Write the structure tokens for this entry.
Amino acid sequence: MSILHFCQWLENTPVGVAVRQSVWLFPIVETTHTVGIALMAGTIAVVDLRLLGFGLRREPVGAVLRQVLPWTWAGVALMFATGALLVSSEAVKLYNSLFFRIKLALLFVAAVNAVIFHWTVYRQAAKWDQASSTPARAKLAGLLSLTCWIGIIAMGRAIGYETK
């Protein structure tokens, strides 16, 4: 089975048809997806801006992460659950969408960046948390993360304006 055939099948499942054809379901799912993105990207932005030295400079990175991480994971869960429903409703359109492909690539880069940050740079956070400047590798991780999430949101919005 090719990816296109899978998308055609997915779009024609009862869930895909229900989301696509319902007057209320698609807008409710899309709005909930937006709330999940805002929750997740907003909390990630707080951490990224802290890493870049633009906010909460007196707060240790570990303390900031401990406060926002539960909200970030709630946003992730909400975003992926509702995103799956949205994809099922228009899988063939998304299969052909350059913006969707870029969005997926940016999601992958953001996830890899987060894993690398947590497995490497963040393990040394106790040493540099109170330093006057965040290490360059932490700043780079924050900048890459922030850039990816801006791109992910922009690509998601662009999908709705695609004419193909």
Observations:
- Residues 3-159 form one domain.
